[in-house]
Amino acid sequence: MASINRPKIATHLINENVTIDTTDREDHTFCGIAFPVQCKTILPVDKIVIKSLSVRGALGPITVWITKENDMKYSSLSNSSNAARSDRVVRQRGDGSSVNKGQMIMKEKYWDKIYEKTHPASYRQYCELDLSANPIILKPGEIRGIYIHSTHDSDQALVYDNQQNIKTHDDNFLTVLPGRAHVSTEVFGTRPIWGWGNAWRDNREFVGQISYGVVYKLWNPSEHLSFGKNFRRLTTE
């Protein structure tokens, strides 16, 4: 009877907490940075929960945005060896067939605002943007875009770097990819602060910290192959 009534959905909150630090060369400062993140599939994870982002600079009025969910599953990164295009992703339907490949679309209708607060300048120490009231939840294989922007009237609002590698960060649970910097004081603005040219700069990297929690899957026969071979052997002995 116990096996019949075995719970299949994890009800616990967080099993493991992780804070990652990116490289920080302070290559540039400006108004915003947008970049993709992906929850990896190599471990039996039910989800990861991004609880905060930390940034530095002149800061000011900060908003954080996340790409909207839709009926397509972001399921894998591009395999392109061209580092300049590493922020591209492959969208796939549930059957795994490739549907579309492209960059994040930097138009407000494709994004949801999850954070808004004014912060004092913090040029040396990271300032935490607490997302606990509206965390970013990623399922295995899922990719979402994160966009951090300041309307501070200067070119020093947020520190970011030039792209150096195909991946900004990569651990057992989360991949952070290079993205695009924003040089407009208007959220999603298309006009640079100096009044002409392109408001977006490709091949840029997020600088700061990302804090997230990991929720592991509950073992069930249907999830057996998601677990490592040592664990699988224990459940069958």
How does this structure look, described?
The two termini are 20 Å apart. The chain is mainly beta. It has one helix at residues 229-236, and strands at 16-21, 28-30, 32-39, 45-57, 60-67, 73-77, 89-92, 98-102, 111-119, 122-130, 136-138, 143-150, 158-162, 169-170, 174-176, 179-182, 200-206, 209-216. Strands 2, 3, 5, 9, 12, 13, 14, 15, 16 and 17 form a ten-stranded antiparallel beta sheet that branches. Strands 1, 4, 10, 11 and 18 form a five-stranded antiparallel beta sheet that branches. It is built from one helix and 18 strands.
Secondary structure layout plus pairing:
Layout: E1 16-21, E2 28-30, E3 32-39, E4 45-57, E5 60-67, E6 73-77, E7 89-92, E8 98-102, E9 111-119, E10 122-130, E11 136-138, E12 143-150, E13 158-162, E14 169-170, E15 174-176, E16 179-182, E17 200-206, E18 209-216, H1 229-236
